[in-house]
Please model this.
Amino acid sequence: MKFVVDPKGSLAPSEQLAEQVRLAVAARRLDEGERLPSVRQLAGEALVNPNTVARCYRQLEWEEIVETRPGDGVFVAIGASAACAAWRDAQIRTRLKRALDDARGAGLTTDRLMSWIGAFMEDRMEESEKINI
Amino acid sequence: MNMNNPNDGIVLDHINFSFGRRPILRNCTFSAPVGEVTALIGRNGEGKTTLLRILMGLLTAESGSVRVAGLDPNKSALEIRRRTGYAAPDRLEVPPWMRVAEYLQFLEPFYPNWNRAFALELLHTMRIDFAARVCDLSKGSKSKLAVAAAIAHGPEFLLLDEPFGGLDPVARRNVMEMIISQIAGGSKTVLFVSHSLADVERLADRVAILDRASITWTGTLDEARIQMKESNPIAAGFDLGDLLVTKVAAEKEKVS
Model:
C-alpha cells in the first residue's frame, strides 16, 4: 500500500500517516499480523522525517493498533481490524452529521438533501461499473 | 546549562556577528538537539548562511558562545569539520579543471570515515557523470554532488545550506531520500537552511526563524501548527509561510 503526506494538510503529518494505517486496517488492506514498513522505508516513501513516522507508530502502539516486536518490526495487532472499523465509522458519521447540520442550518429541505445523496450514489455506481469493465 | 556537553548537539548562546558596521547576527540564541532536524528559515540576506559558517569555524563570532558537540569551532574547527557533513551547493568552489571523480579523491583524505563505495553508489543513483567537470554541472547536479559528498563519511552533524535549490522534482526527491536515510538512525544532528517551506514542513522537527539579525521564533513544527490553529481556527490547512510572515511582521512593528 502507498502512503502519502500532504505537509499543508490540517492534520500533522504523523497523524495523517496514522489515519492511513487505521483506514487500511479497517478495510483489511492491511491484515492483522501483517508487517508494516520500517520507519526508514516509510519515511523514504512518504518523504517525511523518520521521527514523524516513529511518532505515528508510537501513537498507534499506544492505541494498541500495532505492536512492535523488538528486533523484528512493527505489526498490525490482533483485534485491530474491529477497532479501526469502529473508528472509521465514527469518523465518517461525524463528517456526515456535520455536513447535514450545515445543510439544515442553510435552510435546505430533507427531500432535497436525500435527492442529492441518491444522485451521488448513482454516480459512484456508474464509476465503479466503468472500472469493472 | 553545561556549555561543553558533547550530547547537546549544536548550541548557540547570545552570538553577535557583523560585517563592518552592519550587524548580521544579534544576540542569537538557539539550539539544534541531537536526533532532530532543525530548519533555519527567514528572508534573503538574513545571516542564515553566516550562522552555518560560524558553526564550521569559517567565520568567528564577535561575542557569545558557540558549541558543536561541546566543542568551540574557534579552537576545534578541524575536529568539528571531520565530524560534520557541510553542503553549500551555491558555494561549491573547485578549480575549473576538477572532475567529479577527482573531487571525491580530493575530499577523501580529510575524513577518516570516508566511505568510498557509498560515495560512488550515491553518485551512481543520482546519475552524476564521474568524468564531468564539477564547474560544468547543472545547478541541480551540483546540489546532488554537494549533499552526497556531505553524507559520504557518515557524519554526526549535517549542515545543509539550501540543499534543494534549483532542483527538478526528481532530483529533489533523490536529495530528500538521501537526507532521510541519514536521519533514520536517530543519532544525527541536522541543521538546514531552506527557502522551500514545503520541504521544511516535510523534513524538520524544529524550526528557527531568523529575521533582522535575530531569532524571532523557535519551536517544533507541532507547536507551530498549534499556534497557527489558535490564531486562525478556521484555516483549512497549515502553512509555515503564515507563521513566518507573522514573525517577520511582529518584529517590524517592534522596531517602528
